[in-house]
């Protein structure tokens, strides 16, 4: 059998867990190895039973924040110098050769797009549709401008058109990638879109989320992939679920921030609900939250179905898909265009309400939470979506595609 190398950005929770799910779905006869640079979520990889190779050079916390902003389309600046990119490509090429890897599965680890091609190894990318090249080329609205009125929609159309040109046509990829690619015998990566387009792009979406879009060669739908963390539910969750008050799940993934976490928790403290909030990684020791907000570490959110009445989410695809799969209606606060897209698609279907992050704590936010808790129509759609998810397995579909290529 073959060796497959997984290269997630290991300080990104959703990306790391997505890779774990695909690796789990592979035939166990294959040799699976993970590699990465930062160590934030390496424990999840090892807990899932996979070997991980820690590599250098490593990004500082400030450089990570800048890279996340670049990945989310918020800036064209990156901390990735020619020396840094070249060093990582050398490490990855050496590891591919050492292992005799027959395929590389990556996320937004940008140097994979050079190293795998330089070694003539097929590159697979399980990825949300939002902010891929075909989505940016074809979408009329990318939700770059907030608001719902005619003026806001018109402004968003203009902003979307400008972003489309910048993303797909302008030669604005960091020069380091073009230089290092050329030095490694790979066609230079000049546009932002080319930096994150693999040989096989496996779209982690439900069918209705791709309606009205045409997929080019190299893009195919596989279905949802979200975390299944190997851990028991904290005892407090069962206790709160048995209480007479509704239970709300506050999930902010790994791309939110302390300010939003505290604001959302304090806003939910104004409602007659209990809240379970795995936001400990955002808080500081002197943060004081309302007594009805129960803070935990990361928990297995895929086991919350039937226990939680509603959720408040940051809009990352992993948290959104977990809510969909468990039948939990939610309020979504997209922190960037990809996340806003996920929330708006669910809102369009009828089982979520989108609220801008800046509105957290406002009457609009509180009314949205009350509505997802009480509206039977929203709950009925959430249950319909849950039934559709029961037959979807993007990890297994991805594994079949990778293994067929092997």
Keywords summarizing the entry:
406 residues, alpha/beta, 2 domains, seven-stranded parallel β-sheet, 16 helices, 13% strand, globular
Provide a brief overview of the structure.
By secondary structure, this protein is α/β, with parallel strands linked by helices. It has 16 helices and 13 strands. The chain folds into two domains: 3-129 and 174-227 and 393-405, Rossmann fold; 235-389, Rossmann fold (3-Layer(aba) Sandwich), CATH 3.40.50.2000.
What are the SSEs and their pairings?
Layout lengths: L2 E5 L5 H13 L5 E6 L5 H6 L3 E4 L6 H11 L10 H18 L3 E4 L5 H7 L4 E5 L5 H6 L11 H19 L6 H9 L8 H4 L4 E4 L15 E3 L13 H8 L4 E5 L6 H11 L5 E4 L15 E3 L14 E4 L3 H10 L3 E3 L4 H13 L2 E3 L8 H12 L1 H14 L4 H12 L1
Parallel strand pairs: 1-2, 1-4, 2-3, 4-5, 5-6, 6-7, 8-9, 8-11, 9-10, 11-12, 12-13
Mean pLDDT score? 95
State the domain count.
2
Count of discrete alpha- or pi-helical segments spanning 4 or more residues: 16
Low-confidence stretches: none
- Looking at the chains present, what oligomeric state does this protein adopt? single chain
Strand order, largest beta sheet = 3-2-1-4-5-6-7
Order of helices and strands: EHEHEHHEHEHHHHEEHEHEEEHEHEHHH
Query: Which percent bin holds the helix content?
Result: 40-55%
The N- to C-terminal Cα distance equals 9 Å
The CATH class of the largest domain is identified as: Alpha Beta
**Which descriptor suits the 3D outline?**
globular
**CATH fold title of the largest domain:** Rossmann fold
**What is the fourth-level CATH superfamily of the largest domain?**
Glycogen Phosphorylase B
Biggest sheet architecture: 7 strands, parallel
């Amino acid at each position: 059998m073959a060796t497959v190398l997984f290269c997630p950005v290991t300080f990104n929770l959703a990306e790391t867990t997505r890779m774990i799910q695909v690796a789990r779905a592979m035939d166990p006869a294959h040799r699976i190895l993970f590699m990465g640079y930062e160590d934030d979520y390496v424990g999840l990889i090892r807990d899932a039973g996979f070997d991980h190779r820690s590599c250098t050079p490593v990004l500082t916390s400030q450089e990570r924040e800048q890279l996340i902003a670049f990945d989310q389309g918020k800036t064209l600046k990156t901390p990735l110098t020619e020396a840094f990119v070249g060093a990582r490509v050398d490490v990855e090429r050496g590891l591919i050769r050492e292992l005799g890897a027959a395929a590389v599965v990556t996320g937004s680890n940008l140097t994979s797009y050079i190293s795998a091609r330089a070694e003539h190894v097929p590159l697979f990318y399980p990825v949300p549709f939002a902010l891929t090249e075909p989505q940016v080329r074809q979408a009329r609205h990318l939700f770059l401008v907030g608001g719902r009125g005619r003026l806001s929609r018109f402004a968003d159309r203009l902003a979307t058109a400008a972003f489309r040109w910048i993303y797909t046509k302008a030669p604005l990829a960091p020069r380091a990638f073009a230089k290092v690619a050329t030095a490694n015998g790979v066609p230079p990566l000049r546009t932002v879109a080319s930096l994150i387009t693999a040989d096989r792009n496996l779209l982690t979406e439900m069918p209705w989320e791709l309606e009205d879009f045409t997929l080019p060669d190299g893009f195919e739908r596989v279905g949802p992939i979200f975390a299944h963390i190997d851990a028991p539910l904290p005892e407090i969750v069962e206790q709160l679920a048995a209480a007479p008050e509704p239970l709300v799940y506050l999930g902010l993934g790994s791309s939110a921030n302390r300010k939003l976490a505290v604001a959302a928790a304090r806003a939910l403290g104004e409602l007659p609900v209990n809240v379970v909030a795995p936001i400990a990684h955002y808080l500081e020791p002197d943060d004081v939250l309302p007594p009805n907000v129960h803070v935990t570490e990361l928990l297995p959110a895929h086991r919350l179905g039937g226990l939680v009445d509603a959720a408040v989410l940051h809009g990352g695809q992993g948290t959104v898909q977990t809510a969909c799969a468990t039948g939990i209606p939610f309020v979504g606060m997209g922190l960037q265009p990809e996340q806003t897209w996920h929330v708006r698609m669910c809102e369009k279907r009828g089982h979520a309400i989108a609220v801008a992050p800046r509105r957290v704590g406002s009457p609009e936010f509180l009314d949205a939470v009350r509505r997802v808790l009480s509206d039977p129509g929203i709950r009925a759609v959430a249950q319909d979506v849950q039934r559709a998810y029961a037959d979807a397995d993007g990890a297994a579909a991805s594994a079949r595609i990778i293994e067929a290529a092997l």
